[in-house]
Amino acid sequence: MNPFRFPDLAGTGLLAMGSSAANSALITFTIYIVLVFVIAGLANRLQKGKSFVGEYFLGSRGIGLWAFALTYAATAASGGSFMGFPALIYTHGWSLAWWISGYMIVPLVALGLFAKRINQVGRLANAITVPELLRKRFANPHVGYVATALVVFFMFFYLLAQFKAGAEIMATLMDGVPAYEAATAWIGRMTSGIFWIGDASPDYLLCLVIFAVAVIIYTAYGGFRAVVWTDVMQGIVMGIGVVILLFLTLSQVGGLKKATATLAEMTPPEFANAFVEASDGGRLSDLKRGDWIATDEGGVVRLTDAVGNSEESVEVLLPTAASEIALAKPHALPGFTARLSERLPYAHGAGEKGVYLTAPGPSRTSPIGFLPVALAMSFFVFWNFSGAGQPSYMVRQMAFKDTITLRRSIMLVSVYFSLIYF
Length: 422
Known about the structure:
The chain has about 425 residues and is an alpha+beta fold. The chain has two domains: about 300 residues, no CATH class; about 80 residues. The protein is about 60% helix and about 10% strand. It is built from 15 helices and five strands. A five-stranded mixed β-barrel has the order 1-4-3-2-5. It is globular, with a radius of gyration of 24 Å. The chain starts with 17 loop residues before the first helix and ends with a helix.
């Protein structure tokens, strides 16, 4: 159980279908992008004959039950839910369940605390944005200035995480597509040597640009309603996807009981510095992050970054559990050997079986573990109240149609979140 675990593809036949899977990914991505722009076009057409400002920024404050519930749910279930927390649980174990399970009651607290009041005040003040609502509510322009500065500052980091998650997911989805690989190589050549940008992975840069351009275009063209309808589509996809993924995952691991028993036998990986040498025609320039390489000691490691040359050490991940080593060895690339120079075991949990099943969970850097029980419980409580003041949630709370819509949405989102985070 580690952040760089390589799946056992040999037994599933997926390696033989790599080209087909890549084409399917490209087709799926293309269909998704087309649907997003179709939604933006429909939303733009609905703006005709209505107040531009009210329709463009808040959907004329007429968002119904399903649209409001799913746009709120899709906004809350962001990149952190589908990339951040799974990665943390995968790396640090079941203790993260205390933290993320708090999301199941977010709708009851976050929507029940402010939503009705925000909607009513927004209508009375005819406010379009959260800073404008606060400025008019307190009759003080300085409140609006401060609110604007805070929203811009904190939303920058929030959106940074979302765009990063989107780019990483896209890069994983498109891996192996010939046109994508060619474009990635071209981006790498164009950005090589450019300050700061040149240090980023070319595949990440390409996907980030595509993702950002798509979001900017459909948002600017379709307005708030396009965002809401896209959220509805994403909410449906996420809900169905989670159900399918749950059954597929349990079938692959042999059930939750077997998965837990397997975790009980696993030990945290080690990180190490290694020198990689090429032989039998291998070229170091062909190696990329995530490749498996055999060691001169008979083990196997995985690269956490690209290799510069044989004279420079590179950080690698070294599995320690016998089951992990057995899974990884068949995927070691021929023609390369890694020579370990320094091992860096986990500060907490190194060599301990069962550490993934109990709090505080293993930690690479902290001697006291990753997430003590008391801290996890505090996150469980804090998460609900912090969500109530998130600007992207508050804008949606200004847009729902009436109180009945709000009440029913709270129940619907509660069921949806229980499904997503259970």
